[in-house]
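Tutorial handout. Part one gives the primary structure; part two gives the three-dimensional structure as tokens.
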Amino acid sequence: MTNDTATTQVPVWERFLLTVKEASDYFNIGENKMHRIANDYMDSDYKFVVQNGSRTMINRKKFESFLDQSTAI
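Part two.
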């Protein structure tokens, strides 16, 4: 009996947190721009940036909400 859960990956559109690279690809925003947005809004009220050690992660749903309210990025 094998353990298939170890090799099963969650699709990016169902993930709670995305890496900056994944968020860049998913939202069609350049990776450098995504890093700048994450740094600029790290301590804002939007709270879509999560630090996992030294790795910056993006809360997908909160970032979607942020984009819905934005007219330009």
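Part three, for discussion. The two ends are 49 Å apart (CA to CA). The domain at 12-69 is CATH 3.90.105.50 (Molybdopterin biosynthesis moea protein, domain 2).
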